[in-house]
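During the second half of the funding period, the structural biology subgroup turned its attention to how the target accommodates small molecules. The most pressing case was flavin-adenine dinucleotide, which had performed well in the primary screen but for which no bound structure existed. We therefore specified the complex as follows and requested a full 3D prediction, including the ligand pose.
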Amino acid sequence: MTLPPLPGSTDPLVLEITHAAVELHLAQRSRELDRTPAFPRAEYRELGRRRLLGLHTPIARGGRGVDLPGVGRALFHLGRVSGTAFAKLTLQPEFSSVLAEHGTPELVERFYRPMVRGELLVANQVTEPGAGSDAGALAMTARREGDSYRLDGSKSEAAFAVDADAAIVYARTGPAGSGAPGVSAFLVPQDLEGISRSMVGDLGERWMRRGRVEYGSVLVPVGHRIGEEGAAFGYLQAELVRERALLAAIYLGVARASWEETVAHVGERTAFGRPLSSQEAVGFPLVEDWARLDAAWEFVDRTLHRLARGEPVSAEASMSKWLATETALSAIDHAIQFHGGAGYSQALPHEQRWRDVRSGGIAHGTHEIMHLVAARSLWSKGR
Ligand SMILES: Cc1cc2nc3c(=O)[nH]c(=O)nc-3n(C[C@H](O)[C@H](O)[C@H](O)COP(=O)(O)OP(=O)(O)OC[C@H]3O[C@@H](n4cnc5c(N)ncnc54)[C@H](O)[C@@H]3O)c2cc1C
């Protein structure tokens, strides 16, 4: 068996992060967190202590300041050796870069830096029961009252609904119907009076304990507003482009693990007197997956390089997430299939990987919205 090379396998950061994954038993922990969902505080702290949270976060804000292609390669490998959970966890500061880039120095000091150290979990709350893809239709209000804003409304589908210490909450400061330009972001500690939280059970990514957060007349100091009034969606767009491309790298790493394990399995397992790999019905889909996973990686990696150079790649980042998710799901599905009965069982990791990666079609923008973003860009003037 001769496996194709892995991207960046001699990068010092890749070696460091995969070594940490082995030392901290992250693959095993990821499987435990699927069976018994919980936020992995101890590992979060340890990853922070090892400076493995906020890989892309500038050094001035406590991160590693690694360039995006380097982070993509590291996350590919972390996904490959431990699944989605801890690779996504290392991205948590990236998911909150609106706070780092537009929050006051005091907010950054109190909330962002401790997050990079793994001491505090900051979530993001955009989606509402009545507004998800159409985020401009958010109904939650933030009304200015002297030195405070009064928050009223419901957030739904939110990761870490019951675990977050604080959340970046998107709420309407402009009049109803003002769309995206009427939305502002606030840093809201989750223990404030008037907040109630509950969780739902999920298909995968269960450790995130997603759910609903209700705000009933919650007072937040003006200093907790992130950036200018009405500017929040503009801030979020830049963050989303980076996170979509980086998530794509994780999904491809996770699928690569299933693919490698399946290539090994069908080479060894005999049926009807010969190895499964010699049956074209089994071997051919696996060589197709090889080419598809590799091609998807090239697309994602090129997008990350262009993003690092400051090129406008919102469309490519959107299609990276779609392409990586679909390519990975198809490869993991083959892994389930060609391991037979064991592939469908919880004894092997493929079923969990499939469930976890499936979130890629919905979280951080659905597949359909990714297509809309790309189509708009393709037919816009001046691209
Ligand atoms: C694992 C996971 C983690 C998440 N974490 C968070 C989080 O931390 N914070 C947060 O705020 N949200 C989070 N979400 C929510 C996620 O961002 C939303 O579910 C997503 O944006 C879709 O919104 P919705 O659920 O309201 O679906 P809807 O917007 O109702 O969409 C339903 C379907 O209709 C399609 N659709 C909608 N509009 C169009 C259109 N114009 N054209 C074509 N198709 C369309 C969608 O693509 C989708 O297939 C998470 C979701 C998941 C699965």
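Two results from this model are relevant to the next phase. Residues 277 and 284 are 9 Å apart (CA to CA). The mean pLDDT is 97.
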